[in-house]
Amino acid sequence: xxxxxxxxxxxxxxxxxxVVARLVSExxxxxxxxxxxxxxxxxxxxxxxxxxxVGLDFSAVTTFNLDEYVGLEKExxxxxxxxxxxxxxxxxxxxxxxIHIPDGMTTDVPACCAAYEQAIVDAGGIDLQILGIGSDGxxxxxxxxxxxxxxxxxxxxxxxxxxxxxxxxxxxxxxxPRHCITMGIGxxxxxxxxxxxxxxxxxxxxxxxxxxxxxxxxxxASILQHHRNAKVFxxxxxxxxxxxxxxxxxxxxxxxxxxxxx
Length: 262
Description:
This protein has helices at about 10-25, 40-55, 80-85, 110-120, 160-165, 185-190, 205-210, 245-255; strands at about 1-5, 30-35, 60-65, 65-70, 100, 130, 155, 180, 195-200, 230-235. It is α/β, with parallel strands linked by helices. It has a single domain (about 1-255), classed as Rossmann fold, CATH 3.40.50.1360.
């Protein structure tokens, strides 16, 4: 696990975007796993800028989103379908046929989840998965105690996650769906590389537990310690509780030029 600490979320997001851009440039038909929420927005904005200003080409890219709320139609303003089209897809040259997001309105959840897993396999697997982290250490909607072997499935959101996400529903927790379809931790770990983004002091405890604590189901993101290629992009505030923060800065500052965006 590589820890990359930048002064602020914009700098960290730009650094992460360079990793994504390098992959897409070197492998035009790359398979990307995408996340939603406020955390990846600066990264998506930078990818859009690269597309417009330097011609970063997404025409052959395939995408799979981490999750979707159960019970929200694609057109609902808080569905992750709407989020992705508003904040990324409508502003790059991606082929709509290559976009995959779980169907929150499916009438057969198990079949939908199995089909999603098979679609990832058929696409050749995910080359790079973008992740955020919850204040309780969850990734995707894999809440604490989720199985490390889990695959795409339905999950019940914790009360903490419902409260965290209420800000997207006019602050009304009663409007937040209680269930979602999410990639499992096993699905995430099968990606060839993972990028974690976390910003602000509210994520400092979770980041410290993920990076420097024991690997434990109570902190689902901690499993990334065992991933062969995981990068964690954080700002100074999110790094505040890391005991070895100075070491991580030293390592990143000393990387050779060819390795900076790898």
